[in-house]
Amino acid sequence: MQNFFNGGIAITGSGSAVPATCLHNQELTQLVETSDEWIASRTGIRQRRLALPPDSLASLATAASQQAIAAAGITAADIDLILLATSTPDDLFGTACRVQGELGATKAVAFDLTAACSGFVFGLVTAAQYIRTGVYQNVLLIGADILSRWVDWQDRRSCVLFGDGAGAVVLQANKSDRLLGFCLKSDGSQNNCLNLAYNASSTELTPEIHVSTGKYHPITMNGKEVYRFAVQRVPEVIDKALFAANLKVENIDWLVLHQANQRIINAVAERLEIPEHKIISNVADYGNTSAASIPLALDEAVRAGKIKPNDIIATSGFGAGLSWGAAIFQWGR
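Below the sequence we write its predicted structure tokens.
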């Protein structure tokens, strides 16, 4: 039953899951001309997790979701909506419904949301609108990607960057609104900077009709342009989200950025004048897990006791599209 009202939201639980298989930088030297020092100095990455059979996006997303639901103190039967932010579904028609089935969230509507590395932040804002209007009370937001499926392991510019994982949070209707401000942006004129593009070939049905069939190219990226874009645009969008929240940089307790590259994280923090002790980073252990990176880092920090109830968190996702966005929220009810 829908109950329309203008209420608030709270993020009440988190969870995460990563594959068991770990690929260290040193092992990549057997595939391409590189070194642990070269990778670590340019990216901050030391290792990443890889999903091997029988791992699937659905299994990782389900495991992360079960943790988040338990942490929120509810059951899967309480979930009204499941949003799965991913660019790498098990099924091109979508994977959210499979996760719904695995969880036993029988009353939840479920669908995929694709915004690449911005997916979790875009999903957070999307989920909040359903709650704020009173349509749903309990929303499960998942960020999950298996990018290793789409990496060219002979391209040393990209194969060192990506890893696999999943993170999830539960958002619930709340008397006070804990999503304090946000700002979302897109720029399709720079779409060619980062792609996982369709690789078309032609099949003749009749002499007059040739249809397109094919697979996908591996990930391609202009690293310099993406770095330049992120370092410029992310501080701007965080500033705008802070303005919407009527807060200043000094009010931020934790900065949780998309874990793409430690140099980007450091550069953004420096531009915003956020001290190092407020930065949450786990890129060294997992690499770039796309839509999973923010909730994965968030969950680790919560479970380690760093992030506590009422802490103010600034988060930003950025990547393919090009798309980017920021959200300011308080942790817990």
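The longest helix spans residues 223-245.
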